[in-house]
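Follow-up to my earlier ticket, as requested here are the two runs.
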Amino acid sequence: MTHLPKYISPLILGFAGFFLLSSCAPAQTNIPQPKSAFPQSITLLEGKSAKIAESSRVVQFDKLISDSRCPVNAVCVWAGDAVLALSVFTPETQESVQLLELHTYDLGGKNQASAYGYQFKILELTPKGTRPATVTLEVSSALGAKL
């Protein structure tokens, strides 16, 4: 029978102890993460406002500034562009209003804008000539935090 060198026995015992202890580690539990309300979809009539989720801020569809989009049931060479004005503010302190202009046509990123850490993008705008105009916006948190 061969004898192992003196340093091998403690080494084997150390590895065995490590594997035994590591196998007894507590099981990880799935901790539910809080659900974010973003991105949020908001539909507004012209002149109306709605509260932004998880915030005291409000977004308002002020007016349709211009609309060169192709009318319904018409054949057009270019789809056109509509420009609308939005206001973002806190109702209690209306002096801190941020005005935004959004386009339906992506002219170098002008179809989205930011205010107070939120990103606003047009998802849908009622067809040209429809009154009152109705817009559906996607609102997302640009900072990933509750503001």
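Run two:
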Amino acid sequence: MNGAARPEAGAPVTHAERVRIDRPGGAVWDWFLAMRPERVLRGGGGVPGVTGTKALPGPEWGRKGARRRILQRGGGVREEILEAEPPRLFRYRVDGFSGLARLLVREAEGRFDFEPGSAGTGLVWTYAFIPAHPMIRPLTERFARSAFSVFMARGLAAMKQAAEEDIPS
């Protein structure tokens, strides 16, 4: 053993992507909550795009505890808002994965951190994946840092473009 610290097998596998949107933070937040995910999450890296959403019983979307089903080609996931603190933080849990992801990920926590500034709004999208089993942690890491990172980067680029088209400058 080389003495290097290794993460615990059950510890989350994390990945983050960042983009700057050339619009003010409050406007980006409002746009984000109203945004239809199928418009911007079109897929990438082998992760299927979003085809729609279906509200589940509970609070209206945008409030803590709100839930919905994210529909994707070949399946989807359940999403629940854990925190919504305008205009800075949107944190949510995802479970019920389908396809290959169901073999790699038990659940995940996503978050969007909005960083308002004079030159627009920084948007950081972070995912923390809990591996489906400790033995497959290396495969979950590969999924997060290759396939899902492409999905996230393409999604953020599409969010930037759509927000800058929709929000007046």
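The only thing I checked on run two: The beta strands are 13-21, 43-44, 47-48, 50-55, 67-72, 75-85, 89-95, 105-117, 120-131. Let me know what else you need.
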